[in-house]
Amino acid sequence: MFHLFVYVPPPVLITRRLTMNSVAREKFHPENRATMIFHLLRRSAALLATCAMSLITASSPSAAEDASPWDGDARSAVRLIAGSSTVPEHATIRAGIAIRLKNGWHTYWRYPGDAGVPPRFGFAGSQNVNSVEVRWPAPQRIAEHGVVTIGYADDFILPLAIVPQDPAKPVKLRLKLDYAVCEKLCVPAEGQAELVLTGGRSAHDAALAAAEARVPKKAAVGEGSPLAVKSVRRELTGSRPRVIVDIAAPSTTQVDLFAEGPTPEWALPVPTAVEGAPAGRQRFAFDLDGAPPGATYDGARIALTAVAGDSAIEVTARLD
Questions:
Q1: Which of 47, 212, 236, 268 has the most other CB atoms within 10 Å of its CB?
Q2: What pLDDT, in 10s, does the model give residues 207-229?
Q3: How much is the pLDDT for 85?
């Protein structure tokens, strides 16, 4: 038997030996180098266009930041937040001072009570600002080393009402805040912040609105609201003269009362709950003490802030 073998050569892949020099020549051949440069330029142009669009967007009013960075330390920090304005033509711009407190620490109200330091605000260097009103949410009573202070023991916001010089232009608000924070010891603190305010929509509108709702409503003595200061009178009997305040409030609500003198130099005691109120009312009393030298209690106008749950009112009463 014969076997016939036919030789079929394998396919030939035409190649050429590559060396380092040949690779280098291929890579840096003038045509390839031109192609590489073209692609690099195209990518660079795309990157520059992206950066330019980012800068344009960041500088446009619609992209204005609605909060400044936090300024502080582990115990407390401060920043400014923006709020949208519903007043026509931004005649008043809403904003807020947000204060963050470490758990267990507190700070003080505009009147600190038996001890403490009230915050001090500076707005020097602000632009297009005619006036700034700091509004105070209802505070709480805080026991501190045998005395009673008034302040805040959780994170909170102080709403601001800003009147611009020119409502058609943005406001640049600069804040310098000096305050104190306390745990077992009290330490001074300082915060600085800057923010451009346009009155446009803000991510902090809800938080700012909640803080504004906590600001005590102005009221008059004797009003018939569910929370009301019904009467204020001086009591001259006993060892020391004192002021008696009767408050109407829902029976299931815990009520608190704070008193302030006509000027910051006054240091009235923090009122305490006492017995003897008429049915459906709660009674508070405080000694007639704390007037500055040369001042008189006769005819003095004091501010009373009553707090009951989420409700709070502020009345002005004359000491007759």
A1: 268
A2: 999 999 999 999 999 998 999 99
A3: 85
Question: Do the beta carbons of residue 261 and residue 271 sit within 8 Å?
Answer: no
**Domains of the chain and CATH, by start:** 71-215 (2.60.40), 218-318 (2.60.40)
Answer whether residue 114 shows pLDDT above 70: yes
Query: Beta partners for 71?
Result: 78
DSSP symbols for 49-81: HHHHHHHHHHHSGGG--SBPPPEE-SSEEEEEE
Buried-state track 92-131, b at ≥16 Cβ within 10 A, e below 16: bbbbbbbbbbeeebbbbbebbbbebebbeeebeebebbee
CA distance 41 to 47: 10
Which of 70, 265, 72, 269 shows the shortest CA–CA distance to 187? 72
Q: Which of 148, 151, 131, 129 is nearest to 140 (CA)?
A: 151
Long-range pairs for 40-45: beta carbons < 8 A, 24 or more residues apart:
none
Q: Tokens 């004192």 label which residue?
A: 242
With a threshold of 0.90, does the pTM exceed it?
A: no
pLDDT tens string 71-90? 999 999 999 999 998 766 66
What token pair was written down for 116? 């403490």
Q: What local confidence, expressed as pLDDT, does residue 42 receive?
A: 53
From residue 257, give the alpha-carbon distance in Å to each of 224, 231, 314: 18, 13, 10
For tokens 């330390």, name the residue.
Answer: 73
Q: Alpha-carbon distance 27 to 20, whole Å?
A: 10
**Rounded CA separation 111/119 (Å):** 9
